[in-house]
Specification:
The chain is of the alpha+beta class and 451 residues long. Helices cover 45% and strands 18% of the residues. The strands form two sheets. A six-stranded mixed beta sheet has the order 1-2-6-3-5-4, with helices on both faces. It starts with a helix and ends in a 7-residue tail after the last strand.
Length: 451
């Protein structure tokens, strides 16, 4: 896929194709709100007789508090354990028999449930989803089994994986004041003492139609979806929902450092800067500039980190940069690297190398050729993503659930096209500063005394 994106980027450049024109050629998209507050967004895509249905709730780990972490993720698991109409696992069985794909996911900012199925089976998916929104059962015996599954998931995905464990600890330091320092799966101590009654209260607080967005993308019309949404979700009553403030960070928390000795063979480095997201920034231009800055540093074979630090100086064996612009609160601009120990380089030298590249971006803007190359790569990646009805639905749901509008999806390409090289330089000068910096050095475990 990266090679395909690069070829598409080259094609865009070679044709001189206006990205604003691409942005304007979007599918018909409709939105409406039921009387109970459920927001429904329908995006037509008639290329195949398939539809994706996603139900997004505005609740995730950033809504949780100390001592009660992991509730959103645990409740996601329990949503498959029965409702007024069906017993544990029966909804999944029905969907499997219809040839549907279904799953769910939880993040810092949201919990979402989705089904991909033939267009004439959409009614079944919506009926099942509405049933568990209105009448979830939380059998204690099912919870006792499922919490053990969740704890094992945490062991396998985090505790026994040095890189994942390091990043979890790093985030807890990098987000000193917001709920983003809470891991989505929850801390193990909280999972061990979680009670099914806590999940019942969490469900009753947040799982309401007026705290959810239904996204349907595929071979449907807005009238079809409106009829079905009203039939299945309309009878569910709205309810009071707690006020959830955006997880804001200190602008300049001060430089923070962490050294971790973990079960790993080679050292690695994580750096991040506290930055705004599109939801919290005063200027959207600075956010899109940070997105392109990440591509300048780590946007394929010709980007600065791989070409200079990896192949040029042979200082690192790998380096990356990434930034999540679509968070409900403030975000992080993250860099990582592994020093080339075979060439005798240390983790301190790798950190100094990353800083040199950041300073270079602050001292001089990218060249026009470099900017156009990385811009085309970013946009080509977005174009490929939007070819999928599932990705279209996910983008819409994410934007809406973090407090933005799905309409930004169709304005995104033009916004990226408008970013100048000087905008990128200014964003680097504003945000890549030591008072915003967190650093983690991840090192192999130290030998024990008796060894």
């Amino acid at each position: 896929m990266p090679q395909m994106i690069c070829r598409a980027a080259a094609l865009l450049l070679g044709l001189g194709l206006s990205l604003t024109v691409l942005a304007a050629e979007s599918q018909p998209t409709h939105e409406f709100v039921l009387d109970n507050g459920l927001k429904v967004i329908v995006r037509e895509d008639h290329r195949a007789p398939v539809v994706v249905s996603q139900l997004w709730y505005k609740v995730g780990s950033s809504y949780e508090s100390p001592g009660q972490t992991g509730l959103s993720h645990a409740l996601e698991h329990m949503m498959f354990k029965g409702s007024r109409k069906l017993g544990p696992g029966e909804a999944s069985r029905i969907l499997r028999e219809l040839g549907a794909e279904e799953n769910a996911f939880t993040s810092d900012d949201y919990t979402a449930y989705y089904q991909v199925l033939a267009r004439d089976r959409l009614a079944v998916a919506l009926e099942l989803e509405a049933d568990r929104m209105a009448s979830l059962r939380l059998p204690p015996e099912e919870f006792e089994r499922e919490i053990q599954v969740i704890m094992e998931e945490r062991r396998l995905r985090t505790d026994d994986k040095p890189n994942a464990l390091a990043f979890e600890r790093f985030q807890a330091m990098a987000y000193p004041s917001s709920g983003y320092h809470i891991p989505t799966i929850g801390w193990m101590a909280d999972l061990k003492r979680m009670a099914v009654e806590e999940l019942r209260r969490w469900y009753e607080a947040w799982y309401a139609p007026n705290n959810a967005t239904l996204v349907v993308v595929g071979d449907v019309t807005v009238d079809e979806v409106r009829t079905l949404a009203q039939r299945y979700f309309g009878p569910i009553e709205r309810q009071p929902v707690p006020i959830a403030k955006a997880p804001l960070e200190l602008d300049e928390p001060g430089e923070r450092r962490l050294t971790l000795h973990l079960n790993t063979q080679l050292p690695s480095l994580i750096m991040a800067f506290n930055v705004p997201s599109l939801s919290t920034a005063e200027s959207a231009t600075s956010v899109h500039a940070l997105r392109l800055a990440a591509a300048v540093l780590d946007g394929g074979y010709s980007a600065r980190l791989p070409s200079r630090l990896e192949r040029g100086e042979e200082l690192v064996t790998g380096a990356s940069a990434w930034y999540d612009a679509y968070a409900r609160g403030d975000s992080l601009f993250v860099l990582s690297a592994a020093p080339n120990v075979q060439k005798g380089h240390s983790i301190e030298e790798a950190e100094a190398g990353l800083w040199r590249e950041l300073e270079a971006l602050k001292n001089a803007p990218p060249t026009e050729d470099e900017l156009e190359r990385v811009r085309a790569q970013v946009i080509a990646g977005l174009v490929y993503e939007r070819d999928s009805i599932t990705q279209q639905a996910t983008t819409i749901g994410q934007l809406e659930t973090v407090g933005l509008s799905w309409k930004l999806m169709d304005q995104e390409l033009a916004a990226l096209e408008a970013v100048t090289a000087e905008d990128i330089q200014q964003a680097a000068r504003t945000y890549f500063t030591r008072p915003r910096l967190s650093v983690a050095h991840v090192l192999p475990e130290e030998p024990k005394d008796d060894e």
